[in-house]
């Protein structure tokens, strides 16, 4: 099993200071699920009454922990989150559901919390039974050792093929009282034999009821995690959850139940910031990537059409290999626009790489300076803008990375 | 511009003997569109009254020649086909339509045929104006030299990044009289800077009216050219046309106007064979490919669902890189089934590589012999079969190739 060990060249240069979120405590342990000499399980203990929201993979073959979380989410409350790496408990048949249940039982017993308020995730090998009895040996210690401030260590414990842990933080005021939003994520790295999971968890001390939290999360995810793609492959286990402990109420923050409440404006913005930051970090850890690519589509019939066109460009192997080759290949972008199936006016299309307009009114821009554009393409961040020419006001931005030989090596050469 | 020069390892080992189709004559020439020292234009002269059918790219940004052919197809008759390589006349704005028209004018004058019966295609660089005046210098000679039997040379003249010319032939009886179906194709090779076109032409002496021909073609293409994928990228210029000269009528073949006519049964089968053969040859010339992959999906809700699931597997970079790595990675296949968005029963899924069942009832097959499966994966042809477990009778087969580092090199390294 050949892991990519070098940190992605697109990794953030430093980590933010992470303030503690009151009502959340973290612990990590080595349960020996698959790896040796590293942590592979994290526990987040949540204050009683913590509100929860979540969004999950759209896969028709979701993992057992996804089924478990979806069912528990209906209650709206959370007391503990248990995540392991090394085994995804995905495509494990009916055995998988039993493993998930046993994990929750062990956690419920150790935390004295109801099973219905335990949330789970597993990431790592798929198709192998997860031996949940391994959690027996560590759960007591995890509960005993749980402490505020362990977010970065928790992020490390759930890494699989990530080359760096992913965390983000922001602050916002609700009713004049400052609240904190911390987040962590692991990427969609899919190395030998079948790692395949994007996980992200966000913790806040804001007092927000689960339904309002869910409404905000469902909206925010559209512009962040649902607007990124590394290779168009969707995992069976993708999970994004937000936990709101409500501890800021003690400092005077009002409890908010309506997602349209005006007092949530700053919080929404901060949540968007954290999710966008984390989702970009996932892309920046895409296998073999060397370029971070932002694609903005304008002039589409509507926002949904713009997003579909954007993702069609972002998922095009020919566009992605051209970017890896540092070529401003607008012809491939036109082909990707065309195949998206959305309205576009071929003879009004315009395309920019950075500030350089390379195509205009459906053909090569006569003023296009190849040497300047080539220099731009050598950069680490590539911005592509496409006006698809329908005259509509639909716009969307999506993010991806380039497709390099290293991607193929990481995903195809691991047996050698 | 670094072209892949070696012939694909998956190329056919020999060419079939190609019988002549009465009523079709071919000629090729060096018009100097872009290449030096090779032919880059082909003319097919068709007997008066030749019936024509066609299917074209679904791209919303089609090339100028595609627009031209779509308009002329309404007449149902064809006298000449002109195809050039070196320049795709795609994304050339309003200038492109003028170039197409001028090409047709030159051909119409030289052949004394109406403009409405001239069909065109261009393949090669996109976004560069096509200088149609170059056809002036060669069209007279092309008409003068046109002769039966030049199909293979014609196939060579329209190659861009193909590593071998693609031809196929079959015979069938209509009303007891033997007719011939010959076909040629060029692949979807998309090398420097933006080659992006799949073209295929089929010629028959069968007397079949254009509407019946169109109905048969539209049906046949679903199981052949619309069931293949190299990299999920759709060209702006994809074109497949069938020309029926009707010459076999002189030998007693009946004129058929109804696509449901029972006398067409054998012809349909032969047409299917030719299109399937040509479409497979296109996949076998996929950039950097080393494995030809056949994916059969069973147990889906219906045939359309099965095909969508099949293409989701065939287009998954993770599945394709695993095949390049000779790994029977069924976990990635499950992920690809799940992301297709079609109904599947996770806990009833079964997957075979060749005759080796690797997954059963939603988890790893306990009888699965890894060494035998590994040996199978070293082969050149890989068959994958997936029962998605809904109990439905929907089934479909699609074809693709593996995704190798050479693909990325060919499509990303051409500047170096």
Oligomer: homodimer
- Class inferred from helices and paired strands of chain A: alpha+beta
Strand content of chain A: 15-25%
CATH topology of the largest domain in chain A: L-amino peptidase D-ALA esterase/amidase
N to C succession of SSEs of chain A: EEEHEHEHHEEEHEHEHHHEEEHEEH
CATH class of the largest domain in chain A: Alpha Beta
What is the helix fraction of residues of chain A, given as a range? Answer: 25-40%
The overall pLDDT average of chain A reads: 91
Q: How does CATH name the architecture of the largest domain in chain A?
A: 4-Layer Sandwich
Whole-number tally of structural domains of chain A? 2
CATH superfamily of the largest domain in chain A: L-amino peptidase D-ALA esterase/amidase
Number of contiguous helices of chain A? 11
The main sheet of chain A comes to: 6 strands, mixed
Walkthrough of the structure:
2 copies of one chain form a homodimer. The first copy, chain A, folds into 2 domains: 260 residues, L-amino peptidase D-ALA esterase/amidase (4-Layer Sandwich); 121 residues, Ubiquitin-like (UB roll) (Roll). Helix content of chain A is 30%, strand content 24%. Chain A contains 11 helices and 15 strands. In chain A, helix 2 runs parallel beside helix 3, helix 5 crosses helix 6 and helix 7 packs across helix 9. Chains A and B meet through helix 2, helix 8, helix 9, strand 13 and helix 11 of A and helix 2, helix 8, helix 9, strand 12 and helix 11 of B.
């Amino acid at each position: 099993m050949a892991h990519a060990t070098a940190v992605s060249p697109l990794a953030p240069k430093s980590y933010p200071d992470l303030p503690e979120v009151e009502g959340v405590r973290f612990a990590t342990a080595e349960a020996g699920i698959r790896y040796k000499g590293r942590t592979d399980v994290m526990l987040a203990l949540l204050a009683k009454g913590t509100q929860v929201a979540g969004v999950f993979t759209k896969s028709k073959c979701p993992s057992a922990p996804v089924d478990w979380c979806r069912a528990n989410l209906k209650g709206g409350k959370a007391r503990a989150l248990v995540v392991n790496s090394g085994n995804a408990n995905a495509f494990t048949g009916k055995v998988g559901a039993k493993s998930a249940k046993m994990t929750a039982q062990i956690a419920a017993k150790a935390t004295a919390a109801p099973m219905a308020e335990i949330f789970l995730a597993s990431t790592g090998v798929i198709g192998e039974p997860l031996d949940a009895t391994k959690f027996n040996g560590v759960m007591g210690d995890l509960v005993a050792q749980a402490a505020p401030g362990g977010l970065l260590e928790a992020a490390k414990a759930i890494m699989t093929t990530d080359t760096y842990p992913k965390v983000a933080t922001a602050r916002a005021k609700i009713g004049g009282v400052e609240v904190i939003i911390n987040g962590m994520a692991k990427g969609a790295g899919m190395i030998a034999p079948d790692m395949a999971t994007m996980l992200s968890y966000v913790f806040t001390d804001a007092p927000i009821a689960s339904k309002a939290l869910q409404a905000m999360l469902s909206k925010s995810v559209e512009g962040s995690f649902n607007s990124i793609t590394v290779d168009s492959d969707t995992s069976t286990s993708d999970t994004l959850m937000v936990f709101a402990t409500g501890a800021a109420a003690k400092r005077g923050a009002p409890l908010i139940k309506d997602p349209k409440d005006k007092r949530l404006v700053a919080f929404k913005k901060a949540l968007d910031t954290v999710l966008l930051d984390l989702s970009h970090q996932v892309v920046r850890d895409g296998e073999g990537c060397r370029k971070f690519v932002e694609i903005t589509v304008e002039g589409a019939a509507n926002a949904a059409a713009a997003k579909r066109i954007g993702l069609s460009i972002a998922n095009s192997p020919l566009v992605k290999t051209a970017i890896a080759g540092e070529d401003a290949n607008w012809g491939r972008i036109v082909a990707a626009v065309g195949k998206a199936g959305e309205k576009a006016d071929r003879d009004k299309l315009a395309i920019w790489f950075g500030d350089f307009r390379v195509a205009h009114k459906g053909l090569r821009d006569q003023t296009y300076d190849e040497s300047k554009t080539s220099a731009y393409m050598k950069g680490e961040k590539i911005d592509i803008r496409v006006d698809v020419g329908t005259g509509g006001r639909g716009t969307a931005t999506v993010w991806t990375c380039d497709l390099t030989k290293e991607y193929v090596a990481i995903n195809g050469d691991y047996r050698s």
